[in-house]
Structure formats: structure tokens, C-alpha cells
Amino acid sequence: MLKTGFAAGLIAAAFIVAPASAATKAIKFGKLVDGSGKVTDNAVVVVTDNKITSVGTGAPPAGAEVIDLTAFTGIPGMIDVHTHMTYGPDPTTRASRTNATNMILGRDGLQKTLESGVTTVRDMNASDYLDISMRELINMGVWTGPRMYVVGCGLRATRSRFNPAGAPLGCGEGNGPNEFARAARQQIAAGVDWIKIFGSTGSGDDVTQFQTVTYEEMKAAVDIAHSMGKRVGIHSYGPGGARDAIRAGADSLEHATDMDDATIAELVKKKIYFVPTIDHNRYYFDNAERFKYPPGAKANLTDFIARNLETTRKAVKAGAMIAMGSDAIYEMFGQNTRELGWFVKAGMTPAQALASATTVAAGLMGMEKSIGQVAPGFFADIAAVDGDPLKDVDVTINKVRWVMKDGAVVVDKTRK
After folding, report:
1. Domains of the chain, each with CATH number or no CATH
2. How do residues 159-172 score in pLDDT, each as one tens digit?
């Protein structure tokens, strides 16, 4: 098991303005949408090592490597706050392979995620702490992928009928507040960045919403996590678990379909981030036959998508802080930003949709001073798109042509 404090070190890393050198790049954009609300024509972004050192319209520093992207619009590297990077590519055969084998077979999801313009992810469950291993491999430069923040094993109530009373608990499992507190400590000791709680049923073809974790269990885990400087995301497909997650002090609420107006108002009042994850159910619908879902699954998914969208529409109108989370899994990587199209259907402007994947998502991550903007002192996570993302959300979703992550160019599709 790998343990690390690397994420904290990244956030706290000092910003030093260095003179132009071989490590300095000057990126020229026809237009820059920097994430702060400012739009700059003929922008020049200077990057030294892995940080942005200046943003302006002047000449590039002497000796800098010049990257000419004047045919494109620059935007911040995007943030996907709900992924499953380690599950592997095929749900119909993954049970026949080890978890580590599945992770390696699905490794191309890392590159596909970068190609979508996403440079940071929050990964929301993994077996055998493989998300920690993947995070380490990326941080070491052995694998190329988005910056990862991970939860280890999501916390859940004992779920197997083959696990009788008194049997050893699985990773993240618990029953009662004390065991949920213990499970939270277990994940933190392993080196996670966040805690996740599976508060209800619901996943894949299962769109049931049965609450499986009590308020008291949620509160015990949340209190432990907060006391140790960690944030908590709580999965609840349904409104009951959502109400208890909000009451327990969750930092983000995942899925949460069918919330009533009072619950959404409380979400807004407590400044809890909402991650609707609408598009992943579209992905399940599209692949229902291949995944061997039972009869009726596609109708259930269609109904749930409509209700999920309506809940998101109400949350947009109420002023909730909504962040882009794709819930990407299996071969869905590369489609991470399709969620933004649903946000526009829910009433966001294209600019607000882009913010949900940049500044709002950075706030959810507690990293609003280091990612989500193109500004001095921020990590050099930048994407170039073909068109105007403030007018057409499709530009953000489908027209990413170039990506820099941590000062290194990881995607270049600018040559026709």
C-alpha cells in the first residue's frame, strides 16, 4: 500500500517567479478565457516549470519556448470531480481478472481524460487502494494522466449476505457510528485525499434510491474526516439520503435526484457542492445491451435521467454550487465533459457550464488558489479549444485541440 502526503505538498508549494530559461514557455492564444471572468485577446501566458508566471499581451520573455496557439481560445484545464479511473474497461469480464489487472487494462482512460481537456480528477472509489497507486504513478512521472485526488475505499454499510455477523469487515465497511468512524480513519491512514460515503443504493442499471447509511453513521465519519483536515463526498441517489448528507455536514453531494425545494434551499444555505452526474446514466443507457442489463433497465434509466435533469434545473435556479462530475467509468473516459451539455439544458449559460468545470470545481476541491484559472501562481493546467466556449458549450465538450498539464504538453491535435 502506498502512502503519500504529496497532494498537500502540491497545494502548499511556494510560487517563485523565475527568469526565462529552457523551462520557460510562452503560449500565445488568439483569445484567453482565464476562469476569473476576464477575456483577453492576443494573450500571452508564460509558464516556468509547472507554474504560470504571467498572463498578459506583451512580448514573450527572451529565451522562452514560444507555442503559437493564436488560432485557438485558451481556457483553464478542467476538473472532473467524480470519476472511477481504476475499474478497467469491461464490466462484463472484470470479475474474472484481478483488480490490478483491470486498472492496467483501463490505463488508456488517463490519456482520454486529458484529451477531453480535464487535467484534474477526484476519483471516487477503488479496490485495494489502487487509486493511491495510480496517483503515485502519475505523480512520479511513470504514467501520464490527470492530477488525481482519491478516496480509497468508499465507506458503506455491510452489503454481502455472505458476510455474517461477526465476520471481518471489508475495506470501508461498517455498521453503526463507531465503525463508520473507524472506517474513515482507516482511509485517512492509507493516504487518501477525501472520504466518500455510499449513502444509498444506485449504480449502473440500478436506479433505486434506498438509503443504506444512517444520519448518525454519516455524521460520525464526517466529524472524523473534518477533524483530520479531510473533506467528504456523499453518494445518494435519492432524496432521503441527500437530506441526511446535508444535515451531517457533507462537503459535496453526489447524484441526489428528486430533492425537494426545502432540501435544495438547505444545500444552498450550507454552501454544499452538488454533483448531479447526469450523463453517466446516458452512458449506461447507450451500453445496456453490451452490459447485459435486464429487461426494463433502459426505461428505468430514461426516467431517472429526466428526474435527475429536473432536480439539477431546480438547483441551478436556486443558486446551488454545481460542479462537473462525469462519474466516468469503463470506456466512458474521453466523454468526461458531456455533463456540461446537460447543465446547459438545466438552465446554465455556456459560461456557467465552463465555470462548473473550472472555478466551481476548484472550490469544491479546496484548491481555488491553485487550479481552475489561468493566472500567475496557479498550476500550468491549460487547454486550447477551437471556437468560443462562452457562446457554445459544444466547443468545450468536443473541440479541445491542445492540453498542458503541470507545465507539460500532454495533448496536441492542432496540426490538421
Report:
1. 6-77+371-412 (2.30.40.10), 78-365 (3.20.20.140)
2. 655 556 667 788 99
